[in-house]
Amino acid sequence: MFDQRFIRLENLLRLLADGELDVVQFGRPFQRNVHWGAELWGSLARDPQRPINGFVWWMPPPQQEPRAGRYRAFSRARVFIVDGQQRSTALAGGAGIRPACYPPDVWAELGGPDLQVGVVLESTRRLYIQPMRARQHPQIRLGDLLQAAPSDIPHLVADAGAGMRSHEASQLTAELTDLRKRLLDTEIPVMWLRDQAHDAAESYRVLNQGSSTKVAHASEIETLYLDLASPGVRREVLDPLWRHAHKEGYAAAVTFPVINELVQRLLPPSARRRAALKAGAETVAQAARTAVTGCTAMIGYLQRRGLCDASLLAMPAALGVLFHLAAHFPEATDDDFPRRWLVHALATGRYNGAPYRASADVSAMLRAGDYRQARAVLAQLMLPAGPPPPLQPEQLHGRRGGFGAVTSLYALAAASESGLGVRDLFEQDAVFPEAGMALVPLWRGPLESSLGNFVLATPATAQALADAGGWGRPAYEQMRCGDSALASQCLPVPAADGGGIAPAQLVKAREQELLHMINGFLARIGPLQVPGAGACGSAPAA
Protein backbone atom coordinates (compact mmCIF):
# COMPACT_ATOMS: atom_id res chain seq x y z
CA MET A 1 0.00 0.00 0.00
CA PHE A 2 2.93 2.33 0.69
CA ASP A 3 3.97 2.56 -2.93
CA GLN A 4 0.65 2.87 -4.73
CA ARG A 5 -0.29 5.89 -6.81
CA PHE A 6 -3.83 5.98 -5.43
CA ILE A 7 -5.33 5.46 -1.99
CA ARG A 8 -8.91 4.26 -1.55
CA LEU A 9 -10.84 6.44 0.86
CA GLU A 10 -11.69 3.39 2.98
CA ASN A 11 -7.97 2.64 3.40
CA LEU A 12 -7.15 6.28 4.09
CA LEU A 13 -9.61 6.38 6.98
CA ARG A 14 -8.21 3.13 8.36
CA LEU A 15 -4.61 4.35 8.20
CA LEU A 16 -5.57 7.53 10.04
CA ALA A 17 -7.58 5.68 12.68
CA ASP A 18 -4.78 3.15 13.29
CA GLY A 19 -2.02 5.77 13.51
CA GLU A 20 -0.08 4.37 10.56
CA LEU A 21 -0.26 7.78 8.90
CA ASP A 22 1.00 10.89 10.73
CA VAL A 23 1.63 14.56 9.94
CA VAL A 24 5.15 15.97 9.49
CA GLN A 25 6.09 17.89 12.60
CA PHE A 26 6.83 21.09 10.66
CA GLY A 27 3.35 21.24 9.09
CA ARG A 28 0.78 23.92 9.87
CA PRO A 29 -1.95 23.13 12.42
CA PHE A 30 -5.39 21.91 11.48
CA GLN A 31 -7.55 25.01 10.95
CA ARG A 32 -10.81 23.95 9.29
CA ASN A 33 -14.43 23.77 10.43
CA VAL A 34 -17.36 21.43 9.92
CA HIS A 35 -18.79 23.46 7.03
CA TRP A 36 -15.56 23.10 5.07
CA GLY A 37 -15.50 19.40 5.86
CA ALA A 38 -19.13 18.96 4.78
CA GLU A 39 -18.36 20.60 1.44
CA LEU A 40 -15.33 18.32 1.03
CA TRP A 41 -17.44 15.22 1.61
CA GLY A 42 -20.16 16.68 -0.60
CA SER A 43 -17.70 17.10 -3.49
CA LEU A 44 -16.82 13.39 -3.24
CA ALA A 45 -20.48 12.42 -3.13
CA ARG A 46 -21.29 14.51 -6.20
CA ASP A 47 -18.45 13.36 -8.42
CA PRO A 48 -16.26 10.47 -7.20
CA GLN A 49 -14.64 10.27 -10.64
CA ARG A 50 -13.01 13.66 -10.09
CA PRO A 51 -11.76 13.39 -6.51
CA ILE A 52 -10.17 16.07 -4.40
CA ASN A 53 -6.58 17.17 -5.04
CA GLY A 54 -4.01 14.50 -4.39
CA PHE A 55 -1.86 14.00 -1.31
CA VAL A 56 1.90 14.21 -0.92
CA TRP A 57 3.22 11.61 1.52
CA TRP A 58 6.74 11.15 2.81
CA MET A 59 8.28 7.78 3.59
CA PRO A 60 11.57 8.53 5.38
CA PRO A 61 14.62 6.47 4.49
CA PRO A 62 15.25 3.39 6.68
CA GLN A 63 16.56 4.19 10.17
CA GLN A 64 15.61 7.86 9.76
CA GLU A 65 11.91 7.78 10.61
CA PRO A 66 10.91 10.70 12.85
CA ARG A 67 10.06 9.64 16.37
CA ALA A 68 7.50 12.41 16.68
CA GLY A 69 4.64 13.83 14.64
CA ARG A 70 2.94 17.20 14.42
CA TYR A 71 0.69 16.58 17.42
CA ARG A 72 2.35 13.83 19.43
CA ALA A 73 5.81 13.43 20.90
CA PHE A 74 6.07 9.77 19.91
CA SER A 75 4.89 8.24 16.64
CA ARG A 76 5.09 4.74 15.20
CA ALA A 77 3.98 5.86 11.75
CA ARG A 78 6.00 4.88 8.71
CA VAL A 79 4.39 7.48 6.45
CA PHE A 80 3.91 11.22 7.05
CA ILE A 81 1.60 13.70 5.35
CA VAL A 82 3.48 16.57 3.73
CA ASP A 83 0.52 17.98 1.81
CA GLY A 84 -3.13 17.15 2.46
CA GLN A 85 -3.36 17.31 6.24
CA GLN A 86 -6.40 19.60 6.26
CA ARG A 87 -8.30 17.37 3.82
CA SER A 88 -7.32 14.11 5.50
CA THR A 89 -8.28 15.36 8.93
CA ALA A 90 -11.58 16.85 7.78
CA LEU A 91 -12.49 13.57 6.04
CA ALA A 92 -11.72 11.55 9.17
CA GLY A 93 -13.50 13.98 11.48
CA GLY A 94 -16.52 14.10 9.19
CA ALA A 95 -16.77 10.32 9.48
CA GLY A 96 -16.56 10.51 13.27
CA ILE A 97 -12.98 9.24 13.39
CA ARG A 98 -10.24 10.75 15.55
CA PRO A 99 -6.94 10.19 13.71
CA ALA A 100 -4.59 8.50 16.15
CA CYS A 101 -1.93 11.12 15.44
CA TYR A 102 -4.10 13.62 17.38
CA PRO A 103 -4.06 13.06 21.16
CA PRO A 104 -7.60 13.26 22.59
CA ASP A 105 -7.07 16.61 24.33
CA VAL A 106 -5.59 18.22 21.20
CA TRP A 107 -8.38 16.77 19.07
CA ALA A 108 -10.96 18.33 21.39
CA GLU A 109 -9.21 21.72 21.46
CA LEU A 110 -9.04 21.81 17.66
CA GLY A 111 -12.77 21.09 17.40
CA GLY A 112 -12.36 17.57 16.03
CA PRO A 113 -15.51 16.12 17.67
CA ASP A 114 -17.56 18.89 16.04
CA LEU A 115 -16.48 17.92 12.51
CA GLN A 116 -19.03 15.12 12.12
CA VAL A 117 -21.33 15.37 9.12
CA GLY A 118 -24.39 13.43 8.03
CA VAL A 119 -26.45 12.51 5.00
CA VAL A 120 -29.70 14.50 4.88
CA LEU A 121 -32.72 12.56 3.60
CA GLU A 122 -35.25 14.89 1.99
CA SER A 123 -38.76 13.75 1.16
CA THR A 124 -37.75 13.97 -2.51
CA ARG A 125 -35.09 11.33 -1.75
CA ARG A 126 -32.34 13.76 -2.63
CA LEU A 127 -29.25 12.99 -0.57
CA TYR A 128 -26.76 15.63 0.42
CA ILE A 129 -24.13 15.99 3.14
CA GLN A 130 -24.38 18.65 5.85
CA PRO A 131 -23.07 19.22 9.41
CA MET A 132 -24.90 17.22 12.06
CA ARG A 133 -27.61 19.38 13.66
CA ALA A 134 -31.33 19.48 14.38
CA ARG A 135 -33.08 20.00 11.06
CA GLN A 136 -36.39 19.56 9.32
CA HIS A 137 -35.36 16.49 7.33
CA PRO A 138 -34.01 13.22 8.79
CA GLN A 139 -30.25 12.81 8.83
CA ILE A 140 -27.94 9.80 9.19
CA ARG A 141 -24.44 10.21 10.59
CA LEU A 142 -21.95 9.63 7.81
CA GLY A 143 -19.76 7.59 10.14
CA ASP A 144 -22.68 5.23 10.87
CA LEU A 145 -23.35 4.83 7.16
CA LEU A 146 -19.72 4.12 6.24
CA GLN A 147 -19.28 1.59 9.06
CA ALA A 148 -22.60 -0.16 8.49
CA ALA A 149 -22.96 -3.42 6.63
CA PRO A 150 -25.35 -3.16 3.65
CA SER A 151 -27.88 -5.21 5.61
CA ASP A 152 -27.87 -2.61 8.40
CA ILE A 153 -28.77 0.37 6.18
CA PRO A 154 -32.56 -0.21 6.33
CA HIS A 155 -32.30 0.08 10.12
CA LEU A 156 -30.43 3.41 9.79
CA VAL A 157 -33.23 4.69 7.55
CA ALA A 158 -35.89 3.61 10.02
CA ASP A 159 -34.01 5.01 13.05
CA ALA A 160 -33.71 8.35 11.26
CA GLY A 161 -37.48 8.47 10.84
CA ALA A 162 -37.36 8.44 7.05
CA GLY A 163 -39.17 6.32 4.49
CA MET A 164 -42.47 5.90 6.30
CA ARG A 165 -43.81 4.01 3.29
CA SER A 166 -42.16 0.79 2.28
CA HIS A 167 -41.31 1.83 -1.28
CA GLU A 168 -39.67 5.03 0.01
CA ALA A 169 -37.65 3.08 2.54
CA SER A 170 -36.49 0.68 -0.17
CA GLN A 171 -35.45 3.48 -2.48
CA LEU A 172 -33.60 5.35 0.27
CA THR A 173 -31.84 2.14 1.26
CA ALA A 174 -30.73 1.55 -2.31
CA GLU A 175 -29.46 5.09 -2.76
CA LEU A 176 -27.61 5.06 0.56
CA THR A 177 -26.05 1.70 -0.24
CA ASP A 178 -24.80 3.07 -3.54
CA LEU A 179 -23.52 6.29 -1.90
CA ARG A 180 -21.64 4.31 0.75
CA LYS A 181 -19.90 2.15 -1.86
CA ARG A 182 -19.02 5.10 -4.09
CA LEU A 183 -17.49 7.03 -1.20
CA LEU A 184 -15.45 4.15 0.21
CA ASP A 185 -14.21 3.20 -3.27
CA THR A 186 -13.13 6.75 -4.14
CA GLU A 187 -9.47 6.79 -5.14
CA ILE A 188 -7.31 9.81 -4.32
CA PRO A 189 -3.92 10.34 -6.02
CA VAL A 190 -0.78 10.08 -3.88
CA MET A 191 2.67 11.42 -4.70
CA TRP A 192 5.55 9.90 -2.70
CA LEU A 193 8.68 11.51 -1.26
CA ARG A 194 11.54 9.33 -0.05
CA ASP A 195 14.33 11.83 0.66
CA GLN A 196 15.75 13.34 3.85
CA ALA A 197 13.74 15.49 6.27
CA HIS A 198 15.12 18.74 4.84
CA ASP A 199 14.12 17.65 1.35
CA ALA A 200 10.61 16.93 2.60
CA ALA A 201 10.55 20.37 4.21
CA GLU A 202 11.63 21.98 0.94
CA SER A 203 8.84 20.12 -0.87
CA TYR A 204 6.38 21.39 1.75
CA ARG A 205 7.58 24.96 1.13
CA VAL A 206 7.10 24.66 -2.62
CA LEU A 207 3.73 22.94 -2.37
CA ASN A 208 2.31 25.61 -0.07
CA GLN A 209 3.45 28.67 -1.99
CA GLY A 210 0.00 29.45 -3.33
CA SER A 211 -2.09 28.25 -0.38
CA SER A 212 -2.13 31.54 1.55
CA THR A 213 -1.22 35.20 1.36
CA LYS A 214 2.39 36.17 0.81
CA VAL A 215 2.80 37.29 4.44
CA ALA A 216 1.13 34.18 5.85
CA HIS A 217 3.22 31.92 3.61
CA ALA A 218 6.46 33.62 4.64
CA SER A 219 5.48 33.23 8.30
CA GLU A 220 4.60 29.56 7.76
CA ILE A 221 8.00 28.82 6.21
CA GLU A 222 9.86 30.76 8.89
CA THR A 223 8.05 28.71 11.56
CA LEU A 224 8.99 25.55 9.64
CA TYR A 225 12.65 26.47 10.02
CA LEU A 226 12.14 27.12 13.73
CA ASP A 227 10.91 23.57 14.12
CA LEU A 228 13.70 22.14 12.01
CA ALA A 229 16.19 23.97 14.24
CA SER A 230 14.49 22.85 17.46
CA PRO A 231 12.34 19.78 16.73
CA GLY A 232 9.03 19.85 18.58
CA VAL A 233 9.15 23.55 19.49
CA ARG A 234 5.98 24.19 17.52
CA ARG A 235 4.08 21.29 19.05
CA GLU A 236 5.31 21.69 22.62
CA VAL A 237 5.65 25.47 22.98
CA LEU A 238 3.92 27.50 20.26
CA ASP A 239 0.77 25.42 19.68
CA PRO A 240 -0.33 25.62 23.35
CA LEU A 241 -0.11 29.43 23.19
CA TRP A 242 -2.25 29.50 20.05
CA ARG A 243 -4.86 27.21 21.62
CA HIS A 244 -4.83 29.22 24.85
CA ALA A 245 -5.38 32.45 22.93
CA HIS A 246 -8.33 30.93 21.06
CA LYS A 247 -9.86 29.68 24.30
CA GLU A 248 -9.52 33.12 25.88
CA GLY A 249 -11.07 34.95 22.91
CA TYR A 250 -7.80 36.33 21.51
CA ALA A 251 -7.84 34.36 18.25
CA ALA A 252 -7.84 37.52 16.10
CA ALA A 253 -4.83 38.95 17.93
CA VAL A 254 -2.67 35.87 18.51
CA THR A 255 -2.33 34.31 15.07
CA PHE A 256 0.54 32.09 13.97
CA PRO A 257 2.16 34.96 12.01
CA VAL A 258 2.07 37.02 15.22
CA ILE A 259 3.55 34.16 17.25
CA ASN A 260 6.27 33.61 14.66
CA GLU A 261 7.19 37.30 14.67
CA LEU A 262 7.42 37.29 18.48
CA VAL A 263 9.95 34.46 18.31
CA GLN A 264 11.90 35.94 15.39
CA ARG A 265 12.41 39.25 17.24
CA LEU A 266 13.85 37.35 20.22
CA LEU A 267 16.48 35.52 18.13
CA PRO A 268 19.88 36.99 17.26
CA PRO A 269 19.61 38.98 14.00
CA SER A 270 21.94 36.56 12.23
CA ALA A 271 19.70 33.59 13.08
CA ARG A 272 16.28 34.87 12.10
CA ARG A 273 13.86 33.80 9.39
CA ARG A 274 15.33 31.01 7.25
CA ALA A 275 18.67 31.23 9.05
CA ALA A 276 17.15 29.80 12.25
CA LEU A 277 19.23 26.63 11.84
CA LYS A 278 22.29 28.71 12.76
CA ALA A 279 20.82 29.54 16.16
CA GLY A 280 20.87 26.06 17.65
CA ALA A 281 18.05 24.11 19.25
CA GLU A 282 18.23 25.63 22.73
CA THR A 283 18.44 29.22 21.49
CA VAL A 284 15.29 28.73 19.40
CA ALA A 285 13.50 26.92 22.23
CA GLN A 286 14.39 29.68 24.70
CA ALA A 287 13.16 32.38 22.33
CA ALA A 288 9.90 30.48 21.89
CA ARG A 289 9.43 30.07 25.64
CA THR A 290 10.11 33.75 26.23
CA ALA A 291 7.61 34.74 23.54
CA VAL A 292 4.95 32.48 25.03
CA THR A 293 5.56 33.75 28.56
CA GLY A 294 5.33 37.40 27.51
CA CYS A 295 2.27 36.93 25.32
CA THR A 296 0.44 34.90 27.95
CA ALA A 297 1.21 37.45 30.63
CA MET A 298 -0.04 40.32 28.45
CA ILE A 299 -3.28 38.48 27.69
CA GLY A 300 -3.89 38.12 31.42
CA TYR A 301 -2.99 41.78 31.95
CA LEU A 302 -5.49 42.92 29.34
CA GLN A 303 -8.22 40.60 30.60
CA ARG A 304 -7.95 42.04 34.11
CA ARG A 305 -8.37 45.50 32.59
CA GLY A 306 -11.53 44.74 30.68
CA LEU A 307 -10.58 42.97 27.44
CA CYS A 308 -11.89 39.64 28.65
CA ASP A 309 -13.93 38.45 25.67
CA ALA A 310 -13.62 38.35 21.88
CA SER A 311 -16.63 40.69 21.61
CA LEU A 312 -14.61 43.38 23.39
CA LEU A 313 -11.41 43.23 21.33
CA ALA A 314 -10.45 45.63 18.58
CA MET A 315 -7.28 46.71 16.76
CA PRO A 316 -5.23 43.46 16.89
CA ALA A 317 -2.18 45.35 15.60
CA ALA A 318 -2.06 47.42 18.79
CA LEU A 319 -2.30 44.29 20.92
CA GLY A 320 0.58 42.84 18.92
CA VAL A 321 2.79 45.78 19.92
CA LEU A 322 1.99 45.05 23.56
CA PHE A 323 2.83 41.37 23.14
CA HIS A 324 6.30 42.37 21.93
CA LEU A 325 6.65 44.83 24.79
CA ALA A 326 5.88 42.14 27.38
CA ALA A 327 8.11 39.53 25.70
CA HIS A 328 11.15 41.84 25.78
CA PHE A 329 10.36 43.74 28.97
CA PRO A 330 8.49 41.49 31.47
CA GLU A 331 8.05 44.40 33.90
CA ALA A 332 5.52 45.89 31.48
CA THR A 333 2.74 43.72 32.88
CA ASP A 334 3.27 45.27 36.34
CA ASP A 335 2.90 48.82 35.01
CA ASP A 336 -0.07 50.96 33.98
CA PHE A 337 1.64 52.33 30.87
CA PRO A 338 0.56 49.54 28.46
CA ARG A 339 -3.08 50.13 29.29
CA ARG A 340 -2.78 53.89 28.87
CA TRP A 341 -0.86 53.48 25.60
CA LEU A 342 -3.54 51.13 24.28
CA VAL A 343 -6.27 53.65 25.13
CA HIS A 344 -4.41 56.28 23.09
CA ALA A 345 -3.95 53.85 20.17
CA LEU A 346 -7.65 52.97 20.17
CA ALA A 347 -8.90 56.54 20.58
CA THR A 348 -6.62 57.99 17.90
CA GLY A 349 -7.09 55.08 15.48
CA ARG A 350 -3.33 54.73 15.16
CA TYR A 351 -3.45 51.46 13.22
CA ASN A 352 -6.78 51.88 11.44
CA GLY A 353 -6.11 50.97 7.83
CA ALA A 354 -2.38 50.85 8.55
CA PRO A 355 -1.55 47.70 10.55
CA TYR A 356 1.91 47.74 8.94
CA ARG A 357 2.71 50.73 11.13
CA ALA A 358 2.78 48.39 14.14
CA SER A 359 5.86 46.59 12.79
CA ALA A 360 7.75 49.90 12.50
CA ASP A 361 6.68 50.85 16.02
CA VAL A 362 7.92 47.53 17.37
CA SER A 363 11.27 47.95 15.61
CA ALA A 364 11.70 51.42 17.09
CA MET A 365 10.67 50.20 20.55
CA LEU A 366 13.10 47.26 20.51
CA ARG A 367 16.04 49.55 19.87
CA ALA A 368 15.55 50.82 23.41
CA GLY A 369 18.03 49.70 26.02
CA ASP A 370 15.53 49.17 28.83
CA TYR A 371 11.84 49.34 29.63
CA ARG A 372 11.89 53.02 30.57
CA GLN A 373 13.38 53.91 27.19
CA ALA A 374 10.91 51.61 25.43
CA ARG A 375 8.02 53.48 27.06
CA ALA A 376 9.52 56.76 26.00
CA VAL A 377 9.77 55.58 22.40
CA LEU A 378 6.15 54.40 22.29
CA ALA A 379 4.96 57.62 23.89
CA GLN A 380 6.85 59.77 21.39
CA LEU A 381 5.50 57.77 18.45
CA MET A 382 1.90 58.28 19.53
CA LEU A 383 0.43 61.12 17.49
CA PRO A 384 -1.24 63.46 17.97
CA ALA A 385 0.34 64.27 21.33
CA GLY A 386 -1.79 65.18 24.30
CA PRO A 387 -4.79 63.42 25.87
CA PRO A 388 -6.81 60.95 23.80
CA PRO A 389 -9.55 62.65 21.79
CA PRO A 390 -13.13 62.29 23.09
CA LEU A 391 -15.63 60.09 21.31
CA GLN A 392 -18.32 61.62 19.17
CA PRO A 393 -21.96 60.42 19.39
CA GLU A 394 -21.89 58.88 15.91
CA GLN A 395 -19.06 56.56 16.99
CA LEU A 396 -21.52 54.64 19.16
CA HIS A 397 -23.21 53.35 16.03
CA GLY A 398 -22.00 50.38 14.05
CA ARG A 399 -23.23 47.30 12.25
CA ARG A 400 -24.82 44.36 14.09
CA GLY A 401 -22.93 44.84 17.31
CA GLY A 402 -19.59 45.76 15.74
CA PHE A 403 -18.31 49.10 17.02
CA GLY A 404 -14.55 48.72 16.57
CA ALA A 405 -12.29 50.56 18.98
CA VAL A 406 -15.28 52.03 20.84
CA THR A 407 -16.09 48.54 22.14
CA SER A 408 -12.63 48.17 23.68
CA LEU A 409 -12.72 51.68 25.12
CA TYR A 410 -16.07 50.93 26.78
CA ALA A 411 -14.66 47.73 28.30
CA LEU A 412 -11.50 49.46 29.53
CA ALA A 413 -13.56 52.29 31.02
CA ALA A 414 -15.99 49.91 32.73
CA ALA A 415 -13.11 47.93 34.27
CA SER A 416 -11.11 50.96 35.45
CA GLU A 417 -10.87 51.87 39.12
CA SER A 418 -13.14 54.84 38.54
CA GLY A 419 -15.54 52.88 36.34
CA LEU A 420 -19.05 51.80 37.25
CA GLY A 421 -18.16 48.40 38.64
CA VAL A 422 -20.61 46.92 36.16
CA ARG A 423 -22.67 44.14 37.75
CA ASP A 424 -24.43 41.40 35.85
CA LEU A 425 -28.20 41.73 35.75
CA PHE A 426 -28.85 38.08 36.59
CA GLU A 427 -25.78 36.82 38.44
CA GLN A 428 -25.23 39.85 40.60
CA ASP A 429 -22.13 38.41 42.25
CA ALA A 430 -20.48 38.65 38.82
CA VAL A 431 -18.77 42.02 38.38
CA PHE A 432 -17.05 43.00 35.15
CA PRO A 433 -14.40 42.07 34.01
CA GLU A 434 -15.17 38.70 35.54
CA ALA A 435 -14.73 35.87 33.05
CA GLY A 436 -17.84 35.06 31.07
CA MET A 437 -19.12 38.61 30.65
CA ALA A 438 -19.44 39.92 27.10
CA LEU A 439 -21.48 42.39 25.04
CA VAL A 440 -25.12 41.26 24.97
CA PRO A 441 -27.99 43.09 23.21
CA LEU A 442 -31.01 44.19 25.24
CA TRP A 443 -33.18 43.73 22.13
CA ARG A 444 -32.45 41.78 18.99
CA GLY A 445 -32.97 43.48 15.67
CA PRO A 446 -32.43 47.01 14.33
CA LEU A 447 -31.40 48.42 17.72
CA GLU A 448 -28.22 46.31 17.56
CA SER A 449 -26.72 49.11 15.47
CA SER A 450 -26.22 51.15 18.68
CA LEU A 451 -23.86 50.50 21.58
CA GLY A 452 -26.64 51.86 23.76
CA ASN A 453 -28.50 48.60 23.14
CA PHE A 454 -25.72 46.48 24.64
CA VAL A 455 -24.89 45.55 28.21
CA LEU A 456 -21.94 43.67 29.68
CA ALA A 457 -23.44 40.39 30.80
CA THR A 458 -23.00 36.67 31.46
CA PRO A 459 -24.47 33.94 29.23
CA ALA A 460 -27.27 33.51 31.80
CA THR A 461 -28.38 37.11 31.28
CA ALA A 462 -28.11 36.76 27.51
CA GLN A 463 -30.41 33.73 27.64
CA ALA A 464 -32.89 35.45 29.94
CA LEU A 465 -33.11 38.48 27.63
CA ALA A 466 -33.58 36.23 24.60
CA ASP A 467 -36.30 34.20 26.34
CA ALA A 468 -38.16 37.34 27.41
CA GLY A 469 -37.91 38.99 24.00
CA GLY A 470 -35.69 41.81 25.29
CA TRP A 471 -35.43 44.09 28.31
CA GLY A 472 -38.83 44.59 29.92
CA ARG A 473 -40.86 43.68 32.96
CA PRO A 474 -40.73 39.89 32.37
CA ALA A 475 -36.94 39.92 32.08
CA TYR A 476 -36.64 42.21 35.12
CA GLU A 477 -38.82 39.97 37.28
CA GLN A 478 -37.06 36.82 36.15
CA MET A 479 -33.60 38.22 36.89
CA ARG A 480 -34.60 40.13 40.08
CA CYS A 481 -32.13 42.88 39.26
CA GLY A 482 -30.79 44.85 42.19
CA ASP A 483 -30.53 48.63 42.21
CA SER A 484 -26.73 48.55 42.03
CA ALA A 485 -26.79 46.33 38.94
CA LEU A 486 -29.36 48.55 37.23
CA ALA A 487 -27.40 51.69 38.05
CA SER A 488 -24.12 50.23 36.76
CA GLN A 489 -25.84 49.17 33.53
CA CYS A 490 -27.61 52.53 33.14
CA LEU A 491 -31.02 50.84 33.11
CA PRO A 492 -34.36 51.90 34.66
CA VAL A 493 -36.87 49.58 36.33
CA PRO A 494 -39.40 48.61 33.60
CA ALA A 495 -42.95 49.74 34.30
CA ALA A 496 -45.24 47.04 35.71
CA ASP A 497 -48.04 47.92 33.30
CA GLY A 498 -45.89 47.47 30.25
CA GLY A 499 -45.71 51.19 29.57
CA GLY A 500 -42.81 53.48 30.30
CA ILE A 501 -39.95 54.44 28.07
CA ALA A 502 -39.87 52.84 24.61
CA PRO A 503 -36.87 50.68 23.61
CA ALA A 504 -35.56 53.20 21.07
CA GLN A 505 -35.80 56.02 23.63
CA LEU A 506 -34.04 53.94 26.28
CA VAL A 507 -31.23 53.10 23.87
CA LYS A 508 -30.84 56.79 23.02
CA ALA A 509 -30.68 57.72 26.71
CA ARG A 510 -28.09 54.99 27.37
CA GLU A 511 -25.98 56.29 24.49
CA GLN A 512 -25.62 59.61 26.29
CA GLU A 513 -24.71 57.96 29.59
CA LEU A 514 -22.17 55.63 27.98
CA LEU A 515 -20.64 58.49 26.01
CA HIS A 516 -20.31 60.51 29.23
CA MET A 517 -18.69 57.57 31.02
CA ILE A 518 -16.19 56.77 28.25
CA ASN A 519 -15.20 60.39 27.66
CA GLY A 520 -14.70 60.91 31.37
CA PHE A 521 -12.39 57.91 31.35
CA LEU A 522 -10.44 59.28 28.37
CA ALA A 523 -10.02 62.63 30.09
CA ARG A 524 -8.62 60.93 33.19
CA ILE A 525 -6.15 58.89 31.10
CA GLY A 526 -4.48 62.15 30.07
CA PRO A 527 -1.40 62.48 27.84
CA LEU A 528 1.28 59.80 27.71
CA GLN A 529 3.93 62.44 28.37
CA VAL A 530 3.45 63.34 32.01
CA PRO A 531 5.16 66.56 33.22
CA GLY A 532 7.97 65.92 35.66
CA ALA A 533 8.29 62.24 34.72
CA GLY A 534 10.26 62.41 31.47
CA ALA A 535 8.69 61.18 28.29
CA CYS A 536 6.51 58.45 29.71
CA GLY A 537 5.98 58.61 33.42
CA SER A 538 3.02 56.84 34.95
CA ALA A 539 -0.16 58.72 35.69
CA PRO A 540 -2.70 57.88 38.38
CA ALA A 541 -4.92 54.96 37.40
CA ALA A 542 -8.03 56.05 35.54
Helices and strands in order:
Blueprint: E1 6-8, H1 9-18, E2 21-23, H2 34-46, E3 55-58, E4 79-83, H3 85-94, H4 104-109, E5 117-121, E6 127-131, E7 139-141, H5 142-147, H6 153-159, H7 166-185, E8 187-193, H8 197-207, H9 214-229, H10 233-247, H11 256-266, H12 281-304, H13 316-328, H14 337-348, H15 356-366, H16 371-381, H17 405-415, E9 438-441, E10 454-457, H18 459-468, H19 473-479, H20 483-488, H21 503-525
Parallel strand pairs: 2-4, 3-8
Antiparallel strand pairs: 1-8, 3-4, 5-6, 5-7, 9-10
Fraction of residues in helices? Answer: 40-55%
Query: What share of the residues does DSSP label as strand, in percent?
Result: 5-15%
How many helix segments?
21
Principal-axes geometry comes out as: flat
Please list the strands of the largest sheet in the order they lie side by side: 1-8-3-4-2
Query: Biggest sheet, open or closed, and with what strands and sense?
Result: 5 strands, mixed
Uncertain residue ranges: 530-540
Q: Radius of gyration in whole Å, from Cα?
A: 28 Å
Structural class: alpha+beta
Counting DSSP E segments of at least 2 residues, the number of strands comes to: 10
Q: Determine the N-to-C terminus distance.
A: 67 Å
Average pLDDT metric: 88
Keywords:
single chain, 542 residues, alpha+beta, five-stranded mixed sheet, three-stranded antiparallel sheet, 10 strands, 8% strand, disordered C terminus
